[in-house]
Specification:
This protein is an alpha/beta fold. The protein folds into two domains: 330 residues, ANL, N-terminal domain (Rossmann fold), CATH 3.40.50.12780; 95 residues, ANL, C-terminal domain (GMP Synthetase, Chain A, domain 3, 2-Layer Sandwich). The protein has twelve helices and 21 strands. Bound molecules: coenzyme A, adenosine monophosphate (AMP) and zinc ion. The site of zinc ion has 6 residues, from loops.
């Protein structure tokens, strides 16, 4: 068994100069690869650039930014940089109303991603003797198979419990001796309540030592609450489908910022309006370039997540720079129960119904540690034969679109105030502490 403090000391403790020369070599390779993708090929031609123009890391600024919209517009395979026969897996975001985003992986992509996740787990003290349970949704959610592959790459025992069914989660934890669990922070608190209902004290009656929490913004107070209720250490993990999934950045045992793996990604922090770099340590939008992805390399991807680089060296000795907690978004996406939602998805479904009007209100609130998505929509001009059946039908369509179940409430015409200017209203009443 590896007794080192680091999973891959030769990578995790590289000097800044070594990181940068590795990044340059990988960036040159990545740009060459990207030029095979129909989207980038055309883009490079339009911009008059070629892979040979990348002679230093500063030349990154010559490359185009990539947005979620670019990916939607080139759905599904416009960003594919290899032969389809090299692919072994495809992940996609939810949604049927617009084109979802799609990421395709080669065998090597899956292996490097799994290795990165294993590196994160090792960093917080997990070893092959651990039993790691995953309460993320499997299927297309990258938190499912991504975490799964990471556990296996670490050589620990995996419990692929998947999302939902809290009593069963708890039975797995107690019966199988789960030592670590990957859970969305809001769900961790729900799980604590169910432990209480069952009269089991997770701090005393289980072997849990570690929570891996991510996929949605949360505060230091939420982390401390989870730690206290479970008697564990909880570590923040950041990832996104476009960057493969979990394991992009992860806290070390210092619990002070997430190391972003700079052998796999180049990070830039830019002003979301001007797209110019912000001063070191300032908050801006995180832009990431993949460095080791074969199937779909992405250049300067605008994550829309707002954060900052923590410039100081980390006492743990890892040299890959840390990012701070995600502070917000530069678009209108919000996350409920670990599911990403764009208000436009909701609007598009509502507008399919002539029975409803144009005003609606989206409210997210927490009750008993359960996050609810409530959609109030005004009645329209068309007669409503059966309001209950209408609500049921809208709920069903929204569930298919969003992958979670909202509460739909029909309101009289003047009950929802006119949305002045911006047609969309989102009221997030979740506690921010
Ligand atoms: N993760 C795991 N389970 C969750 C959850 C979450 N984020 N949020 C809620 N649940 C549990 C609920 O507690 C409930 O179980 P319980 O009643 O036994 O306690 C069960 O899932 C169903 O939740 P409910 O709110 O009734 O239904 P829904 O249709 O709205 O649920 C989920 C949808 C939870 C299945 C869906 O939101 C989901 O898959 N979330 C996980 C997304 C994910 O893995 N993201 C990671 C991306 S990296
Ligand atoms: P997905 O593509 O479904 O994995 O969602 C990715 C998005 O989830 C990111 O762009 C963030 O907005 C959010 N996210 C993921 N991890 C975290 C985290 N640790 N803290 C805050 N937000 C997160
Ligand atoms: Zn550290």
């Amino acid at each position: 068994m590896n007794q080192s403090k680091y999973f891959e000391p030769e990578i995790e403790t590289l000097s800044r100069q070594e990181i940068e020369s590795l990044q340059l070599a990988r960036l040159q390779e990545t740009v060459k690869r990207a030029a095979n993708a129909p989207y980038y090929k055309k883009k490079f031609e339009e911009m008059g650039i070629s892979p040979n123009d990348i002679k230093s890391l500063a030349d990154l600024s010559k490359l185009p930014f990539t947005t979620k919209q670019d990916m939607r517009d080139n759905y599904p395979f416009g960003f594919l940089a290899c032969d389809k026969k090299e692919l072994v897996r495809l992940h996609s975001s939810s949604g049927t109303t617009g084109n979802p985003t799609v990421i395709c992986h080669t065998k090597n992509d899956i292996a490097t991603w799994a290795n990165r996740v294993a590196r994160c787990f090792y960093m917080v003290g997990l070893r092959n003797t651990d039993v790691i349970q995953n309460s993320s949704g499997y299927g297309m959610f990258t938190g499912g198979l991504g975490i799964q592959a990471g556990i296996e790459a670490l050589g620990a025992m995996s419990i692929p419990a998947a999302a939902g069914n809290s009593r069963r989660q708890i039975k797995c934890i107690t019966d199988f001796g789960t030592t670590a669990i990957h859970a969305i922070p809001s769900y961790a608190l729900r799980l604590a309540d169910v432990f209480d209902e069952l009269g089991i004290d997770p701090a005393k009656d289980t072997k849990l030592t570690t929570f891996l929490i991510g996929a949605e913004p949360h505060t230091e107070e939420t982390r401390r609450k989870i730690e206290q209720r479970f008697g564990v250490k909880a570590y923040n993990c950041f990832g996104m489908t476009e960057m493969s999934g979990p394991g992009v950045a992860f806290e070390c045992t210092e619990q002070n910022g997430m190391h972003l793996w700079e052998d796999s990604y180049i990070i830039e922090i830019v002003d979301p309006q001007t797209l110019e770099p912000v001063a070191e340590g300032e908050i801006g939008e995180m832009v990431l370039t993949t460095l080791d992805r074969e199937g779909m390399p992405l250049l300067r991807y605008r994550t829309r997540d707002l954060t900052r680089i923590i410039p100081e060296a980390c006492p743990c000795g890892r040299t890959h720079r840390r990012i701070d907690r995600i502070k917000g978004r530069s678009d209108d996406m919000f996350i409920v129960k670990g599911v990403n939602i764009f208000p436009m998805q909701i609007e598009k479904i509502l507008m399919q119904y002539p029975e409803v009007g144009t005003n609606y209100l989206i409210t997210i609130k927490t009750e008993n540690n359960n996050d609810d998505l409530i959609i109030e929509v005004e009645k329209g001009n068309a007669p409503i034969a059966d309001p209950h059946a209408l609500c049921k039908s809208i709920t069903r369509k929204l569930k298919d679109e969003l992958l979670l179940t909202p509460y739909v409430i029909l309101r009289e015409k003047d009950e929802i105030p006119n949305a002045e200017g911006k047609a969309v209203r989102v009221k997030d009443l979740r506690s921010k502490e």
